Here is the input.
Amino acid sequence: MAGEYAQGFISGKTGPGIILITPAEAEDLFAGGQGAFVDARSRADFSAGHIPGAKNLPFEEAKGKAIGEFTAGIPRGKSVVIYCSGKDCSTGLALAVLLRDQRLEEVRVFMGGWAEWTAAGLPTEQGNDQE
Here is the structure.
């Protein structure tokens, strides 16, 4: 259901241009091929399991880089859906702010992240075929 997450908990400094989405919205974007998923977790966590087709972009590696350096391979014209471990993980939101500040449009954050994705029994894959 759209709007389930209140955007008010994000300050005005971080909020504009970032859309928080629910598990159902993330699933719809995945199923419809409308989302380019970006996993903000560590490379080890990503390798252990991730959303199929997701690109791994650990926040710590993204800091200080130009947008072209870390967005290569993210298809244009799709909503960028960033996720991390779960609701208590702020890494996905921090990465969204970084991408938004680099002028990437359609930045969405799936706040439930990996924990809610797997709890819902949605598709997963293992390994790191990005390298």
User: Anything to note?
Assistant: The chain has one domain: 14-119. The longest helix spans residues 91-101. The CA atoms of residues 48 and 115 lie 13 Å apart. The helical segments are 23-31, 43-48, 59-62, 67-71, 91-101, 113-119.
